[in-house]
Amino acid sequence: MSNVPPAPSSGARTAEAPAVGVVMGSDSDWPVMEAAAQALDEFEVSYEVDVVSAHRMPREMIAYGEQAAGRGLKAIIAGAGGAAHLPGMLASVTTLPVIGVPVPLKYLDGMDSLLSIVQMPAGVPVATVSVGGARNAGLLAVRMLAAFDPELAERMGHFQEDLNHQATEKGRRLRT
Ligand code: RP5
Q1: At which positions is substrate bound (predicted)?
Q2: What is the Cα–Cα distance from 126 to 123, expressed in whole angstroms?
Q3: What is the domain count for the chain?
Q4: What is the CATH number of the domain that holds 136?
Q5: Residue 4 counted as domain residue
């Protein structure tokens, strides 16, 4: 896995603005966060990728959140580790749904990241996935878009059927 996020807007490309913003506090988060991008790629959902640090780039971070909806984004996936304030701060300056990914760092097994992201005050929601759960963040963004896109919803349905078949097959193999 590369430690460097690809250039912004590197996901499934369309002529339109990307649908999902995938941002993180540092390029060191990319080995975890790229699973979100991969999930979006699987569903051909367009996205952009960038580093927007809440602590090291506060003004840029606020601008990103304030401009996100106007640029056409429909959801933001934000990952950060440690004192992980990025998802919550973005949620405070945008009306878009924000999905937070707690990135595990060297110490505390990601509990610091998880608690920083999940314990939001009432009125400022962040949909927090599991520690390191960037793939589910990508899939949740797909589901959000699928609520307004029947074709995407159908593909999500097929994806879930595949999961069912795989799990069923595992049980069948164990029983025989
Ligand atoms: C957080 O600090 C980032 O999201 C990253 O998880 C962590 C460490 O960043 P680097 O020191 O690796 O740039 O803000």
Answers
A1: 26, 29, 56
A2: 10
A3: 1
A4: 3.40.50.1970
A5: no
Find how far residue 138's CA is from the centre of its chain.
5
Domain encompassing residue 128: 20-149
Residue in the block written with tokens 């029983």 = 175
Position 174 in a domain: no
Query: What is the rounded distance in angstroms from the CA atom of residue 103 to the CA atom of residue 82?
Result: 8
Would you say the ipTM is above 0.95? yes
| C-alpha 85 – ligand 1 centre gap (Å) | 11
CB–CB of 103/29 below 8 Å? yes
10 inside domain: no
Query: What is the C-alpha to C-alpha distance for residues 79 and 72, in angstroms, rounded to an integer?
Result: 20
162 belongs to a structural domain: no
Could you tell me if the CB of 103 is within 6 A of ligand 1?
yes
Q: What is the distance of C-alpha 71 from the center of its chain? A: 18
Cα 79 to averaged position of ligand 1 atoms, centre (Å):
10
91-131 pLDDT per residue, tens: 999 999 999 999 999 999 999 999 999 999 999 999 999 99
